Amino acid sequence: MPDKLTGMQVFVDVVKTGSFVAAAGVRGLSPQMVARHITALEQQLGVTLLSRTTRKQSLTAAGADYFRRCEIILGAVEDAERQVKFDVTQPAGTLRINSPVTFGRYSLIPFIADFMRRYPQIRIELTLSDTVISPLDNGMDAVIRIGEPDPLLRLVAKPLTPYRLILAAAPSYLDHYGAPLSPAQLPQHRCLGFSPWLAGEIQEWTLTDGRQTWHTDVSPPLVINDWGALAEAATEGQGILAGHRQALAGYFRRQQLRPVLPGYHFPDQKMHLLYPARRGTEARLRLLVTELSQWFPPADGA
């Protein structure tokens, strides 16, 4: 039996063109198939839509009412199809993203600015926090997290570029104290502490050159719970700073800071974009996943 939506389209074509033959030409059907669609509709509805004679057909009262309603329904279907196609080619709507504070402020913002320039129909709500949260419980579309994802969250975990910390200091500090030549010399220097991952008067900094690892105890003379404030203190010559390589890039370009022990870095930490699997087919979220993975490509093709 012909489907009802096609039957409605054929019926509207018959009314607009004035004949079965003309409607058949518009729809690419035979006149006999057009007649079958109309008959099937009338049988389903239990009313006569068209009064037929050997010379012409005309709308019945029920047919005229049904024609108006069909135009409304078919127009809504066309609007829905156009919107879906538009969302695929020009994704729109709101993306709610959560990110760690330092990464979000210094590394994610350049990506978001570029993303929104190219996709102006997308609105972004970005929240920054270092607390581990689940997007399922907090109304987020996606969450960026450093470290191994919790398998109990049952989320898709898209690998991003590993999070790497390197060392830096202001030219004024290096001119006054000199630069350490190896991790073993760090205890003789002023090493600044970031409180979310440092606690206590003596801290252990772990550094590697990719072949060997050094565990070095340092005693931070200054500890701050905001990395941006700590970086500003470093630019004032207060000590050696550990920071995300992308967050430090701007300070290096402005020559406010210089790399320290450039052949060494803290062990890389895995970083992932987390999102619910059932949301992965949405155009704007799928676009975010693709673009973010290209901007922050995972190591070794992971």
From TrEMBL:
Q: What InterPro entries does the annotation carry? A: LysR-type_TF_proteobact-type, LysR_HTH_N, LysR_subst-bd, WH-like_DNA-bd_sf, WH_DNA-bd_sf
The question of whether Ribonucleoprotein is a record keyword is answered with no
A Pfam family that the UniProt record links to this protein: HTH_1
Keywords from the named record: DNA-binding, Transcription, Transcription regulation
Top-rank taxon of the source lineage equals Bacteria
Q: Which Gene3D superfamilies match?
A: 3.40.190.290, Winged helix-like DNA-binding domain superfamily/Winged helix DNA-binding domain
Q: Identify the PROSITE patterns for this entry.
A: HTH_LYSR
- Residue intervals of the HTH lysR-type domain: 3-60
Similarity comment: family membership: Belongs to the LysR transcriptional regulatory family.
Q: What is this protein called?
A: LysR family transcriptional regulator
Q: Which organism is it from?
A: Tatumella terrea
